[in-house]
Design a protein that fits this description.
Blueprint lengths: L10 E4 L6 E4 L4 H13 L2 H15 E2 L9 H16 L2 E7 L6 E7 L14 E3 L5 E4 L4 H10 L5 H11 L1 E3 L1
Antiparallel strand pairs: 1-2, 2-3, 4-5, 6-7, 7-8
Helix pairs in contact: 1-2, 2-3, 4-5
């Protein structure tokens, strides 16, 4: 007699930027531990790696987390968290005036990514010339933060634009 297999529920999700349907499972205690250790380290690279590892472990099929846009990763992570820990997140804020605690609850199921009508990654510069932009990935975002740490906001903005050009 073999060891029993633990079944984990599977859910479907549409990736907002690609409209691709994926299957995923809630994160388990082992992934939660990876995330907690990374958060305690306060090291940005370790947090990003833990997030990518958790997503890669929980998504079924041929999906490369490094290729997903940052808003896709955030959306998928919220869905994983909702199925693993519950759909309601309780947030606590400090009131700037009275210094009292303000508690607010958010239901993850109502969070949606809204894409504007007419949204296009093609940016026409002239009648004959344009650029095709790509969404920043988590790896690109990390690269931008590393390379623009000591630069002003305008330089950071231009660097980000340049890094997000897919082709001309």
């Amino acid at each position: 007699m073999g060891l029993p297999t633990i079944t984990v529920p599977q859910y479907d999700l549409i990736v907002p930027s690609t409209k691709q349907k994926i299957k995923y499972r809630p994160f388990l205690v082992k992934e939660e531990k990876i995330l907690l250790i990374a958060m305690e380290s306060e090291d940005q690279k370790q947090i990003i790696d833990a997030t990518k590892t958790t997503l890669q472990n929980c998504i079924y099929g041929d999906v490369n987390v490094s290729d997903l846009s940052t808003f896709d990763i955030e959306y998928i992570f919220l869905q994983l968290r909702g199925k693993a820990k519950g759909e309601d997140i309780e947030l606590k804020f400090e009131c700037p005036d009275c210094k009292g605690e303000i508690v607010n609850s958010i239901n993850i199921d109502v969070i949606k990514i809204i894409q504007q009508d007419g949204h296009d990654t093609n940016v026409k510069l002239t009648d004959d010339l344009g650029v095709v932009m790509k969404y920043p990935t988590i790896d690109l975002q990390s690269k931008i933060e590393t390379n623009t740490k000591d630069k002003n906001n305008i330089d950071t903005l231009f660097y980000t634009f340049i890094q997000c050009i897919d082709y001309i």
